[in-house]
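[Help] Beginner question about ligand-bound structures

Sorry if this is basic. My supervisor gave me a protein sequence and a SMILES string for zinc ion and asked me to "get the holo structure". I don't really know what that means in practice or what format the answer should be in. Inputs are pasted below exactly as I got them.
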Amino acid sequence: MIYLIILFVMAACVVQLPVFKEYAKGGRVRHFLKTLNSDENYIVLHDLILATPNGKMTHIDHLVLSIYGVFVIETNNYKGRIGGEEKKKYWTQSLFGREKKFYSPIFQTYIHIHTLEQLIGCKPYVSIITFRPRVTIDQIHVTQDWLYITHDKQILKIIKQYKERLISQDELIRMENVILKNLVIDKNAINKKNLVEHSEKSVFAKARSCPKCGGKLVVGKGRYNAVSSCSNFPACRFVDKSG
Ligand SMILES: [Zn+2]
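Answer (accepted):
No worries, everyone starts somewhere. Holo just means with the ligand present. The predicted complex, written as structure tokens, is below.
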């Protein structure tokens, strides 16, 4: 009996480990992308809310800026079986004999790239749409070679496939600065109506999380105005000076 209790306590401790928590919270992709952080040729950002060219807002799950290209990653938490077509606005999820329609991740990715283009310009964009393990993805034929629909564990493999240097180190830093400067993090400005994709994602909470590490943003006083900084300081040094 006592062994059982010890085992139970040990299991509970493991679940408490940050790595496990991050993993369980659906941060699988974040976890996979972590290995890129130590490579200066990659800059990884998460949960970005940006204004689209037509005045709406869009949420980008993960963005990898690299000298090899700009990888726009859209993660989906749907279960069951996924079906869709490249040019169809809605795809279907089948689960327990029921079908549910959802906005095409490809259309979503077009909006993301269009939005990024207006900010950082025309770049070699690569779009990766991922689903969780055990999801059955029907054969979805795509005509673009920069577009991937796959399981999330394939992400690094796809990114690492790109080896040709197309963007300079300086340009990488410039792109990061432009994006971070243009983030929408004012909670009042973000309402569901303004979001392009009306999915069930908790975009509201994400708007106040650090784009570098996912930590909480805390508002403090700067020299002239309110400043949001990451609660994981000093491990993460993200600061948003616009409030
Ligand atoms: Zn941070």
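A couple of things worth pointing out: Residues 39-205 form one domain. The radius of gyration is 19 Å. Feel free to follow up in the thread.
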